[in-house]
Every structure is written in C-alpha cells, then in structure tokens.
Write a structure and sequence with these properties.
The protein is mainly α. It has three domains: about 20-205, Up-down Bundle (Growth Hormone, Chain: A), CATH 1.20.1250; about 215-260, no CATH class; about 265-455, Growth Hormone, Chain: A (Up-down Bundle), CATH 1.20.1250.20. It is about 75% helix and about 0% strand. It has helices at about 30-60, 65-90, 95-110, 115-145, 150-180, 180-195, 200-205, 220-235, 240-260, 275-300, 305-330, 335-355, 365-390, 400-425, 430-455. The chain is globular. The chain starts with about 25 loop residues before the first helix and ends with a helix. Keywords: Membrane, Transmembrane, Transmembrane helix. It is a multi-pass membrane protein. It holds the Pfam family MFS_1.
C-alpha cells in the first residue's frame, strides 16, 4: 500500500495563534453531522452488545452468537480498504454514501430478522458500511478542516464515543425491556440519515484532489484479512485442539495480508508514518485488551456487581475524553511526539496499577485510578495519531493512509484479544489469578512497546 507523505514534522509545536471554533458557522453543520454519525456508530456497537443475549435467546441462535460480533469486525476490514481507495480516487462522498446505505440496510435486515443467520447477515453488512464510513469521515476532516483545527475535531470524535459508552447500555436495556430488541437496530437509521444530510454541503465542496496512484489491487488482500480476522475471532472462542488449529493459520494469513495492506515499513517500525500506523494498532491492543478482561476480573474475583464494574469501565472512558480534550486544547506548545510519549508512559503506569486488582488485598481504588490513567494516556495518543496521519499524508493519499491506520487497529486488537483469550482459557479451573497476570502482562508489554515506537515518530 502507498505511504506517500508530506513533510510536516511530528515535532512541530502547536501554534499559539487563535484557532477557529469547530462550531463556527462555516464548520458547524459538518462538525455536528460527523460527530452525530460517530456517536450513532458507538451507540449501535454498545447497545447491540447489551441486547445480543436477548436476541440470541429469541432467535434460538446461541451457536452463532460469536459470529454476530466477530463478523462485523471482519467485514469492516473490507469496508476500510475500499473506502480508502475510493476516497483517494473519487473523493470521500461516494464511499460515505455507499457505506451509510450498507450500514442502514444491515440495521434493517437485523431489525426485521426472523432467524439468527439473517441477523448475522445484517451484522456483516453493518461492519462493511461502518468501515467505509469511518475512513471517509477521516478524509473529510483532512480536506475540510485546516490542520490547526483537526486536533479539536478528533477530540469531538472522542466525545462522540464517550457519551454512548456511558449511556448506551442503559438505554439499550430500556429499549429491549419496553419496546423490544428489534428497536435497538431500527432506531439508528431514523437518526443517521438526518445526521448524514448535514454533510452534503461539505462533501460537495471537497471534490477530488489530484488522483493518487491506484497501485496494485489490494481488495483480495482485504478479503483475506477479513477471513483471517473472522477465523481468529472464532478460534479464540474455542477450547482444546480446535483453538490452535484455527488460530495458527489465521495469524499466518493476517501477517501476510497486513504486510500487503499496510504501508511499507509498518511491521518493521520504520520512522515516520509507518510508525504512526503501527502505534495505533499497538496502543489500541493494549487498551482494549485490558478493557476486555477488567470487568471479568472485577466481577468474578473482586465481587463487584455488573453495575459497579460498568462504572469502573466508564472511568476509563472519561479519562480518554479528558486526554483527548487536552491534546486538542493544550496551550503549552507540546509537540505531537511529546503527547504520544506522555500518553504511552501514562498507559504503562495505568495498566500496572490496574493489574493490582488481581491481588485480593489491594484496594480497588488503586486499580480505578490506574484505569483512569490508562484512559488518559489513550486519549492523548489516539487523536494525535489521527492528526499525524493526515498531516504526514499527501492529499491524494489520505484515504489509503487513514484506511491503513484503522486497519492497524482492527487487526491488532483482533489478534490481541484472540491470543490473550486463548491463553487465559488455559488457566481456568483454579488458576485464574495466573491467567489474569499473564494477560495483563501482555498488555503492559504492548504499552511499553508503545513508548519505544512513539520515539520513532
């Protein structure tokens, strides 16, 4: 995949000159439309997760339960890749509208499904559309907002994810209880269409920049990565010999496809844009790996109720938002590299403190403080990498490179969750503490690797 870059250095300090508000008249509709779509995507992901046990029971589809989750991740890989190429060649309008149409169609198929296989088909369509939308929105940011405004736009994106993470599961529970689970799917299109229509003026204005090189056909590699991610997800749910039988070939397929899909030098941590893209996958894997095991640890080993465990996760989301707001509004003139290094160090300290919850005698407040620090570090890292990817990409290659950024995260997180989950399963039945210790150690190593990679940007 192309890694064409422009020259703005990651060490350039943040300008002190006044920056227009992202809600000023010229940008208000675009900002509101984009953040609304991000929020609806976040709500849909979290709300469906909360409603899926009821869905699986009503449709007698427990055997396809894992596929209903893993399938969306798998098809999003294809959507990201296609959207990146189309955005570079034709502008972000077509991939955004096509992605939105696919996303809404998937929601309708799932909402009206009478059988679990039909619902899974709808989930596959949702993943394909969501992947296309996410890349198109990044390209729209790069072509609609001046560089000094982009950190604040991505801070708004983070807010768009935090709010659903706080209220999404509760709202989903109310919808399932009083309206039925189908409305968890059907209510999103009613809001997504008006939000997308706010983007029409901006999409008409951005047009198409000088065409980038089409390069080789990467779609087959995207399909291969999608199948590999799906096999990885399913393999991570298995026990016994079937788990390695699926995981080993899936990892090999993902490694080969990643080498073809990501910019040259990403897997070897070459300085500059390749390290930016690699860091997204590494840091996201560390954070979401902890997030996957923390509620299990708090509920099973420390006796917290699901409500209190959810509150604990919300603290990390609030920390993420605080870090994201800070990187977009800080006035100290910190460079992006300094923000990345600070965020990676905070993640190391935070994950180490969070892992103390494994010890029964340790107070839980120390783990909660650690999780807030982990979220704060991720909030500094995540939007900074988005800003750098756009800044270091030539306009005609912003689609390909933002696609690679999101692919790095999707494939990295899928790999980490599958491998750590399989290792954790080996230590069940009396050795859970060792399993938790091993999984948190993996996430700490990833966070420490993030510190090293941040120095190469």
């Amino acid at each position: 995949m192309s890694a064409e870059v422009s020259s703005p250095p990651a060490t350039a300090p943040v300008e002190d000159t006044p920056i227009p508000s992202i809600l000023s008249p010229a940008y208000r509709a675009t900002t509101i439309g984009m953040v609304a779509l991000v929020s609806l995507h976040g709500f849909e992901a979290l709300a469906v997760a909360a409603a899926m046990p009821t869905v699986a029971h009503d449709l007698d589809g427990l055997r396809l339960y894992a596929l209903a989750f893993g399938g969306t991740l798998a098809t999003s890989v294809i959507g990201m890749t296609l959207s990146g190429r189309w955005s570079d060649q034709q502008g972000p309008a077509r991939p955004l509208w096509l992605g939105l149409a696919c996303f809404i169609a998937g929601l309708l198929v799932a909402g009206f499904a009478q059988h679990m296989p039909v619902l899974v088909l709808g989930r596959l369509m949702q993943g394909l559309g969501a992947g296309a939308i996410s890349v198109a929105l990044y390209v729209l940011v790069g072509r609609s907002f001046p560089e000094p405004m982009r950190p604040r736009v991505f801070a708004a994106f983070s807010a768009g994810w935090v709010v659903p993470s706080l209220i999404g599961p509760s709202i989903s529970g109310l919808i399932v209880q009083h309206l039925g689970w189908r409305w968890v799917f059907l209510i999103v299109p009613l809001l997504a269409i008006p939000a997308a229509l706010l983007l029409r003026p901006a999409l008409r204005q951005v047009g198409v920049v000088a065409a980038g090189s089409t390069g080789r056909n990467v779609v087959p590699w995207a399909v291969g990565a999608s199948l590999g991610a799906l096999a990885l997800y399913v393999g991570g749910q298995q026990q016994g010999w079937l788990a390695p039988a699926l995981l080993v070939p899936a990892l090999a397929v993902l490694a080969l496809c990643s080498w073809k899909l990501l910019p040259a030098g990403t897997l070897t941590l070459r300085r500059g844009l390749p390290s930016v893209i690699a860091l997204r996958g590494i840091a996201a894997s560390a954070f979401f790996g902890c997030e996957a095991f923390l509620p299990l640890l708090l509920q099973r080993e420390r006796g917290l109720t699901p409500l209190l465990a959810g509150v604990a996760l919300s603290l990390g989301a609030l920390g993420w938002f605080a870090g994201s707001w800070l990187q977009g509004h800080q006035q100290r003139g910190w460079s992006r590299r300094q923000l990345l290094q600070s965020g990676a160090l905070l993640m190391c300290v935070g994950i180490l403190a969070t892992s103390l919850a494994i010890q029964p005698g340790m107070p839980l407040w120390s783990a909660m403080v650690g999780w807030v620090l982990t979220g704060l570090g991720m909030g500094l890292i995540y939007p900074s990498l988005s800003v750098l990817t756009l800044s270091l990409s030539a306009p005609a290659h912003q689609g390909a490179n933002t696609s690679a950024l999101q692919l790095s995260e999707a494939l990295g997180v899928a790999t980490t969750l599958a491998v750590s989950g399989s290792l954790f399963a080996l230590f069940l039945e009396g050795r859970e503490a060792l399993g938790y210790l091993l999984t948190f150690a993996i996430m700490l190593v990833l966070a420490m690797l993030s510190v090293a990679v941040a120095r190469r940007i």
